[in-house]
Amino acid sequence: MDRAELADRLRREGVPDALYEIPGIHSVPVQLDAYYVLRPEADAWLVVLRQRGEDSVMASFGTEAEACRHLYDTIGRVPPPVPGGAERIARLLADTDEIQRQAQEDYDRAPYHSGDDLMPRDDDGPHGA
After folding, report:
1. What is the bridge-based pairing of β-strands 54-61 and 20-21?
2. Which residues contact 40 (CB under 8 A, 6 or more apart)?
């Protein structure tokens, strides 16, 4: 199996696109905190786990076919996605402006958010006398 066949097989089996990246074949549409990357190097094929922008090499192989098989087997052990999860992500992405607006309003209404004094003073609270 090569990279293109791997991507096709993962798509057919419903593996979420956000769980893997195959350079030149499949990009991660929404970057999660962690996802797998199949990465060709000069003398090896690497299966990498990218977590919060940091790469950890999970395995190294001499051939593309071996690396593809390992990645396929690894992703096959990932639990299936939560039903409706993709729709929830799509709604969240569509509503990012509204979410940011609401967060700013919540912040503006919050007590003690003036720039230089974020903590209540003794005379500000109900226990001060």
Report:
1. unpaired
2. 23, 46, 64
* 25-31 average pLDDT score: 76
pTM, two decimals, is 0.58
Q: Mean pLDDT score of the chain, rounded to an integer?
A: 81
- Phi, psi for 12 (deg, rounded to 5): -60, -35
Structure tokens at 48: 């990498």
Q: Are 72 and 1 in contact (CB under 8 A)?
A: yes
The H or E element spanning position 92 is: helix 85-94
- Tell me the pairing of strands 20-21 and 34-40: parallel
Structure tokens given for 58: 């999970």
Helix (H) or strand (E) holding 37: strand 34-40
